[in-house]
Model the fold of this input.
Amino acid sequence: METPERLMELRVPPGRPAELAKRDPGSRLGLRDKQAGEARLSELAAELSVLSNRLWAEGRRSLLLVLQGLDASGKDGTISHVFKGVNPQSCRVHSFKEPAGVELAHDYLWRVHASCPQRGEVGIFNRSHYEDVVTVRVRELAPERIWKRRPRHIREFERMLVDEGTTVVKVFLNVSRDEQRKRLEERLENPEKAWKFRREDIDDRARFDDYMAAYDEVLTETSTDWAPWYVVPADRNWLKALAVAELVVDALERLGPRLPEPEDGLDGLVL
Ligand code: AMP
Ligand code: MG
Done:
């Protein structure tokens, strides 16, 4: 099964630089029409519902979507739009915050591994172990020798997940500086969204370039044949959700989960 060309464009080719500066956050990926895009998203959401149900029924393998992106890149909205049709029983979302308590008593991958999907589940990481490289680096939470070696751990950790039956789809939501400002301003003004705004967001915004440079490096170092990165243009909400839905449906189609055979002797059974 061939991956659609549109998705291949988003891929960071393993062993090659991510070149974020050359990727346009406002791209439409050749799709002109928002309405047609939204209609296609509804179709994909229905496909996702069927495929994830088969994965759940099969109960042998799992899929993990890793969502990374700066503040206001649209991680929360992408999750709610793309997965609206998925049975919550077969789906597990985990939002990673700054580690605290017992998490700090372990290595940084401990909580991550414990939050990975079980066989049959679709797992979604809203932020992930990549915070332990990028945010730790930019906010200077640990010295360079600590975060510098983490991409090596992560490549091998993800290889283990894949070897053991988890398909890993990694998405970086690429938002522009201007669009991020608009969304953060909107957040402050909208009473339904103001709770999301935190003082640290201002400091992080001032470090926009540092974050982008750190992401550029980590995406380059951790895009592998077994768990490649995809950079999704994130300035248009409809396009972003559509691209992520396509990536997830494509990965599930490749897996081709199969429903268990019905028990023998059910044919012609009268109730
Ligand atoms: P939000 O996703 O807006 O709820 O914010 C979560 C915050 O937790 C963000 O500022 C992240 O950068 C931060 N965070 C998540 N994981 C880590 C981590 N491993 N180390 C440091 N900060 C983290
Ligand atoms: Mg936030």
